Amino acid sequence: MIKKLTFFICLFSSFVFSQNLEFTVFVKDFDTDLPIEDVTITAVKSNQGFLTNKEGIAIISLKKSSDLEFVHTSYKKLNVKNSAFNQKEITIYLEPITQQLEDIIITKDHPQEILMRIIESSKRRLTLPISLKVYLHEFYKRDDKIIFFNDGLINFQILGNDKNIKTDILVEQNRAVGFLDNDFDTTILGYDLNNIIENYYQFKYLDEVLDNRARKNYDFTLKTYPPNENYLVLKITPLPDSKGILSNFRILYDTKEKIILELSSFVDQDRLEMYKEGLLASRKVYKLEFKNTFRKDGNYYYLANSKEVIGFEKRYKNKERKIEVKNHMVITDFNKKTFEYGDRNVFKGKSLINKNTSFFTNYWDVASGFVSTDEEKNIIEQLGKPDTEILNEEENSNE
């Protein structure tokens, strides 16, 4: 394929010269007034995507005026008219659904069989080919201290079909700050961008609960989802006597559309402590979390955002180190049409940790769809300073 030079020019032009409507949204719990993290916000007219951070904050930058949809599985969905966004800062309250009781559903087929059918249906329904514009945001910890950060605007060109997915990655802008030891093996860090979409679109994280042995190791429970009678929740939990590092799963799916809307998993801390020797040959895992959110809009069905956290201990030069990687991916825009590009423009690396910083706008402030918290911004600023400047600041603070 021949790369069209107009591609990046158009990206730049649309970003810089479009008259965006910008404001900050604070999303809070109606009962507690506390901020709500991981709220998926979608502009109804343009399908632009945003995600709230730990402070419940999202900076909204719209291409055109639009109503906004606020979705979180622990709260009632809320649609807010665009006329309400007439100030630079807006507070939105979501009503929790935790008070509503879930009923257990008894089915003729085992829930595992239902899950298999839902997975196959979801694979077929996912929109392909598609171009996803993604903001990637990653923090790296060593011994409980953040030592490195990278983020970037990435274009995933997802081609193929439900049986064979191919992903090409084009990095629009990116930055990397911090310091990794020379002996630090970067191949164990980050999430492999070249197969991450395939894992998500093939629902590979569910493989461990799909084989015949899974019924002996897990309890499968199907429950109602009170906010929407068309949705059901499948909870999969390891049985007390089952061995190994086994995840707890929660799958929210639409019974009419037969598609997965949210998939999350985590491993209980007690189970990690008991079986941490067995997950990876050279690592002792102490944290393992995952969450995917999918969105259905008309004929489109696509990944809306994801979050993964892995923490493990690994020996370096006869010393145990705790390593933790936290990754957010937010789909800020998408297009059914893919664009032309050359092979030399495709990013071949495993992670942005291996790519030199290159940016021409402060994309992380507005274009990201997901902003760092004030605490994270301070950390990023410190990571970006030369070692001599940090040393001088420490000396001045001690005087």
Report on the structure:
The chain is 17% helix and 39% strand. The termini are far apart. The protein contains 7 helices and 17 strands. By secondary structure, it is of the alpha+beta class. Residues 1-19 and 388-395 have low confidence and may be disordered. It has 2 domains: 6-94, Immunoglobulin-like, CATH 2.60.40; 111-354, no CATH class. The strands form 3 sheets. Strands 10-9-8-17-16-15-14-13-12-11 form a 10-stranded antiparallel sheet, with helices on both faces. It is globular. Keywords: Signal. This is Carboxypeptidase-like regulatory domain-containing protein. Residues 1-18 form the signal peptide.
